[in-house]
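Changelog-adjacent note: as of this version, every example in the card shows the full chain rather than a window. The one below runs 410 residues end to end.
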Amino acid sequence: MTDREGGFYSAEDADSLRAQGKPEHAEGAFYVWPKNEIDRLLGAERAKVFDYQFGVEPNGNAPEDPQGEFKNKNILIQRHSVAETAKKFGQSENKIEQLLAESRKLQFEARAKRPRPHLDDKVVTAWNGLMISAFARAYQVLGDPAYMQTANKAADFIQQKLYRTDTNTVLRSYRQGASDVNGFAADYAFLVQGLLDLYEASFDTGRIEWAVKLQQHQDELFGDAKKGGYYSTSEKDSDVLLRMKEADDTAEPSPNSVTALNLLRIGYMFDQTDARHSAEETIKAFATQIERAPTSAPQMLVALSWSRSKPKQVVIAGKDDDAATQAMLREVHRHFVPHEVLILADGGKNQQFFSDHVEFMKSVNEIDNRATAYVCENFVCQLPTNDLRKLADLLARRRANGKTTAGNSE
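Full-length structure tokens:
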């Protein structure tokens, strides 16, 4: 599902042929496994370990199968950890890892001989924005550099293939070349969200600078200055007879929900009253829907929660590659702080970028030449600290009945 240059393709068919040269096809045919095929392919020792690890059952493991597509078929899912599997079979974890690696290789080679499902290899800007967010956040939580690399490659793909610098315009999609269709509100909104998440993972100010530029252009193209919110299409599109504002968060969130939160994050990162006001106006534009059917707009409720809270600015002063700085960032990511923006003050270009927008950032420095955390509301901060326990306490503080309380968020 990934282009070799980093973009994510749109979709792969769920349905595919059961066997080469035969007309029969079925849901998931490329991916599901009968137990007897696994046993034959892996051999007894590997198969018993594999079956336990991935929940393989003789009659198939689909809990519901109304169409009878998965009779005697197994959808592989990791039912147990390596440690649990090792304990079950009285083996070392290293031995179990080895057996599972051998099994996956054998199955991958066997599956490659099956007819592949059809692939929709369009790269859609909006959906790539969502993927960039997912991988950036995965890196924050899990610390696997492969996730960061994946998010960066997707962002680079969009910037190089689907962005026009001279007009600050995003195009909708790419397949063997960029389409001539300009991006919709969702393309801007989801990409801006992805870039904000990517900044908070990589601290590359180029990402957030681009996000702010795109947000400004989205405002110009799709914003309703009188009633608030964003139309899905631009008034420049002569083929559209009626411009609509999407509000429902369904299979994907609405551009209005995502944009409201994007504006709040930008507003609190750069202390921009105008951005926060635009977010409030966007939320207000859908107030009736939120009141009558709140479950139709869960992502808008997230933005509403932000707008009614006192979001924290967490600023870490330190070099990005310093071990103490990384330890502080890990501590930040260890806590669930729902209303938070994260900024790195590295004493160099990163900090200078924010200092050009926020006066407070000029005074942020390490204390005693050690990485230091500033936890702030509206850039009014608690005493800075380079102690991880104190940072954890500051991140876990809550307001209840107007009083500040502290407690671990985990």
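Structural remarks: Residues 93-111 form the longest helix (19 residues).
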